[in-house]
Amino acid sequence: MQDDHDQTTTIAPLKEDNFGQKTKHAVLIVMTGPTAGQTINLEARDHWELGRSTDADIVLQESSVSRNHCRLHFLGNDEWKAEDLKSSNGTFLNGERVTESKLANGDRLQLGSATVLKFVLQDEQEVAFQKELYESATKDSLTGLFSKRYFLEHLDVEFNFHRRTNKPLSIVMSDIDHFKKVNDIYGHLAGDFVLKEIGRILLNVLRRGDVGGRYGGEEMVFLLRETPLLGARTFSERLRVLIESHSFIYEGKKIPVTISLGAATFTQENHKTPGELIKSADAFLYKAKKAGRNRSYCLIDS
Q: 289: which of 147, 233, 239, 282 is 20 to 30 A away, CA to CA?
């Protein structure tokens, strides 16, 4: 007779090929920078372009990486090759500069002076485990946005690059209006539901290369690369309208939800540090709240 306290855990077997071997997947693991630990499954497409451009398939933030730096090509039978796209600072394979080269399991691919990626063949369990490790270290489990720590590390890199190149960098701060009332009237589980829904909506509108983070409590923050103030204002207003028009229904009850937002854009004269840029966006968020909430606010509106 089985003891009532006995527990049996069943683990699904890994997929195998016709010869009983575990199926391996080609992946890139980011080894350096704010996204260290991120795993990219290469099998989603036959070629990948890597670079700083927001149009790249894999956006890399380090300043020595060219906008269109390197391309990976699938050759068949688990084989891939790397091709340098006439980058300024070069593509290196295991320390040797290359223009084109096949990749082997465990190879280290360096783009520019500091961005290192590792090419590996992993089975499904290894891929899933790597992804879980990365997300638990960098993401907020409730909203799906990045953690405050990750966001600030990422902002440091982007701020230095945009200051050096004098390109526009915008920050948008947002806060859920009267969120305490949501918790008080509908309960904390309903509050968690609202945060989760807002996180899902926000992730759907962010461009590739932009970053959204949970800054604390019901406050969220967004980094918009190479975006002037007018673009940040448009982004803020779009978010505001999306949240206001969304139906938040929890246990059959509709919860009214709106957000207030403040946007600021980096200028050489007013922002010497990333913290000063955050402070500017937060000041405009305060003005949006003071003006009645459910609105976006920036320097243009002053």
A: 147
